[in-house]
Write a structure and sequence with these properties.
The complex is a heterodimer of chains A (153) and B (350). Helices cover 0% and strands 42% of the residues of chain A. Chain A is an all-beta fold and 153 residues long. Chain A starts with 16 loop residues before the first strand and ends in a 9-residue tail after the last strand. By secondary structure, chain B is an alpha/beta fold. Classes of the chains: A mainly beta (153), B alpha/beta (350). The structure holds zinc ion.
């Protein structure tokens, strides 16, 4: 057997820095509650070129030229309904509309060199505040990533 | 009713698989446990964690899942249970302000999610998912930024279903909105737009399905078509349980949207996740790099792919090539889909 202890190459270290953002929403108003830099390896970016052919909500980290560096699909982060569960397994789960949708959601995105801002976008017909899908995705909120990193009140 | 009604006492790592920077981190919080009930809380967390870790595909990825328990005491035991929904009328002073009857629905048990996220972030900054156990035997739960569930039998299933949405980006697979018998008339056809989630689609041809690589050539596509779009299709499955295909009725529509299997936890509680949902969960969870050094290249590539990683071969690729070096090293916890570089040599393995 060869001496394998030193044989491992170290050519592709994944980024280990991430930013956690917590948002509050009420109706179609979205605001940043807090953000914090942490050490964490994240799942791979949803960079599929197909992404924009779908309907949904997602986050983008972009550089100063607006080029997307990271994309993450979010499943209904600001629901206008609540999921109601049956007491007996196998019976129907259902959805009930909520009168005044409000709540919080959190995102983890990579803390990338060259990142300028984060945007949450949606082209989902059911998402509050989203224009008709034909006019392209609507930016629901944008956060400057060049400053801060501590929790903001 | 607020954070003045209790205190955060600290965190305990109940399953430690490695650095929280690399592992997937599940955080449990408790509400409505008084300081003398925290031993019971610890038992309740252990039970819920055990259910999750024994649920496929989590059971196959235990090596990358950390579980944390954050001890939070409340002034009172239990949760608010308003009479408006037929509850007992109890008003309890608890840290996360758990209450039944949210939005006028008795079983809709919710907490102050902003406070829950703040506590989880302060105690376990690297958290991936947060579940709140509410100390009540009345059935209830909810989803959203944090999963909430009570101690009633089967309520843990609510938490696992909700993790499917919040932590793994899965869509509901049920074919109605308020219910099959609700009289709703706006759920006959899915809108002609492709949902972004990996487990539902409007495609009805084999080539158009997101999960086509999981369908046997002998399985018809569509596998089930709903003959009456005015109703849910309640017929039994024409194929054995576990068959991946395209079953019409999904994503809140009777027709025009398809789910991958007849049954799934995103359709009904108590059912296993379907193969497509399991794959998505595995893709989001980190994975462990297999040991491939000094293996023949074909065997090494199979192991790397089997771990959800992408092989990259450097050097002579010929009959008899073997892996001389690998990066990352065996046992490292990395993101699924990461590249494993294998430098090859030919000839006999020393
Ligand atoms: Zn499924």
């Amino acid at each position: 057997m060869s001496d394998v202890g030193s044989a491992d190459t170290r050519d592709e270290e994944p980024p280990r820095r991430a930013v956690r953002l917590v948002f509050a929403y009420e109706g179609d108003e979205v605001r940043l509650l807090s953000r914090a830099r942490i050490e964490k390896v994240l799942p791979q970016s949803d960079q599929s070129a197909d992404a924009l052919n779908f309907r949904g909500t997602w986050s983008e980290v972009r550089d100063a030229d607006g080029v997307t560096l990271d994309r993450r699909v979010l499943v209904d982060p600001m629901p206008r309904d609540a999921e109601v569960f049956p007491e007996q397994l196998g019976e129907e789960i259902s959805r009930e509309p909520v009168e005044r949708p409000s709540g919080v959601f959190t995102l983890l995105v990579p803390d990338l060199d060259g990142a300028d801002h984060l945007a949450v976008l949606s082209n989902s017909p059911g998402q509050a505040g989203v224009r008709a899908a034909e006019s392209g995705p609507t930016e629901l909120v944008r956060v400057d990533l060049t400053t801060g990193g501590e929790a903001q009140p | 009713m607020t954070t003045s009604d209790g205190s955060v006492l600290g965190r305990t790592t109940i399953v430690d698989r490695g650095s929280p920077a690399e592992c997937w981190n599940l955080v449990f919080l408790g509400d409505g446990y008084t300081s003398t009930q925290l031993a019971q809380y610890a038992t309740d967390v252990n039970n819920a964690a055990s259910v999750l870790l024994n649920t496929p595909p989590f059971n196959g990825r235990r090596a990358v899942i950390n579980v944390f328990r954050v001890d939070v005491s409340s002034t009172d035991s239990g949760a608010d249970d308003p009479v408006a929904c037929g509850g007992s009328g109890a008003v309890r002073r608890t840290y996360f302000d758990a209450t039944f009857c949210t939005n006028g629905i008795q079983r809709l048990l919710t907490v102050d999610a902003a406070t829950a996220l703040a506590v989880a972030g302060a105690q376990v900054p690297e958290f991936d998912a947060v579940l709140v156990i509410v100390n009540s035997t009345v059935y209830g739960g909810s989803g959203g930024a944090v999963g909430v569930f009570s101690l009633a039998g089967n309520a843990t299933e609510i938490a696992i279903h909700e993790l499917g949405h919040t932590a793994f980006g899965l869509a509901d697979e049920y074919m109605y909105y308020r219910g099959c018998g609700s009289g709703e008339t706006d759920r006959d056809h899915h809108p002609p737009v492709e949902p972004v989630e990996p487990n539902v689609t409007i495609a009805s041809t084999r080539a158009g399905l997101k999960w086509r690589d999981l369908i046997l050539s002998s399985t018809p596509v569509p596998t089930m078509s709903n003959p009456d779009c005015a109703q849910c299709d309640s017929r039994p499955s024409p194929v054995p349980t576990g068959t991946v295909g395209a079953f019409e009725g999904a994503h809140y529509a009777h027709c025009g949207a398809y789910r991958p299997e007849y049954g799934c936890k995103l359709l009904t509680l108590g059912t296993p996740f379907c193969a497509v949902c399991q794959r998505r969960i595995r893709q989001v969870l980190p994975t462990t790099v297999p040991h491939v050094r000094e293996l023949r290249v074909a065997q090494a590539v199979k192991l790397v792919r089997g771990a959800g990683l992408v092989p990259k071969l450097v050097g002579p690729q010929q009959h008899g090539s073997w892996v001389w070096q690998q990066s990352p090293k065996a046992g490292a916890i990395v993101a699924s889909g990461s590249t494993v570089t294998m430098r090859l040599r030919s000839g006999p393995i020393p």
